[in-house]
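Example (one chain per record):
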Amino acid sequence: MEALQSGKVWRVGFMTNGGQGPELDGLRNGFAALGYVEGQNITFAPRFAEHQSDRHPSFAEELVRLDVDLILTFGGPATFAAKKATATIPIVFVLVADPVAIGVAASLDRPGANATGVTNHDPEQPTSQFALLKEVFPELTRVTILSDADIPGADGGGLAPIERINADAARAHRLRPQVCKVRGPHPDLEDVFAAMEKGRAEALLVLEVPAPMFHRKRVAELATARRLPTIFPGSVADAGGLITYGTSVFDGLRRLPVIADKVLRGAKPENLPIEVVSRRVLVLNLATARAIGVGIPPRVLQRADNIIG
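Predicted structure:
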């Protein structure tokens, strides 16, 4: 792999669905650990959508006009917009649930174009999450799946790949799924919970997608007020949900500068396999269990990586 060019100042674009936060600081620290010094051999051009996904296409076009050397993207909407804006500038992504399904890569082993990165998409996670719900609540029959209306790749029925996978996994466990979607930056959560009540939801699974993740604490509060058990993805135990289970986005974030460094040193994204995070974390919140009046079986408690409350 090529060494960094002497005297070269790399221009790196950055697109995220959220706002200014620790992600950019984490990236800067990650690049610094690899020998990059901001202002000397690297500069960043961040673009924050502030949870308005429709801003991503214009951000991507701006970065293309700036002729950046690399675009880093957080999430499916940002990655999809960057991929549509350029077929030549390398893209390194994270937080994309299924990059093949939404069309930004040909395969995980050989992405085949200008985008690669890391995904915490675990094909078995939906099955494992619903199995866990059924273990805790054997009589469970109906579940709501909370998603984001701006996730790309929707089929004729309006479901994105991550929603289809989760709905199919629910049915495999003899559960009747209801998919509800919200849209940032100011989703009407009261309205969506009213839809859950109308659908007679008995539990809520929250997907790792932008709007529900940004409003995760409010989602957990509303669910707890309705005594509705919740299961969140593995990286958001801070939400206050009953169960947090699955892969962690933080494992992926740590890999982003490493992959970007390979590209800046000359590696072609089309030949860099997409890395897959597979480590799952189980966190149980006993304070929430008490608040909604449910118990967690001892055998599940014994498997927990962490217990809150």
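Caption: The CA atoms of residues 33 and 140 lie 48 Å apart.
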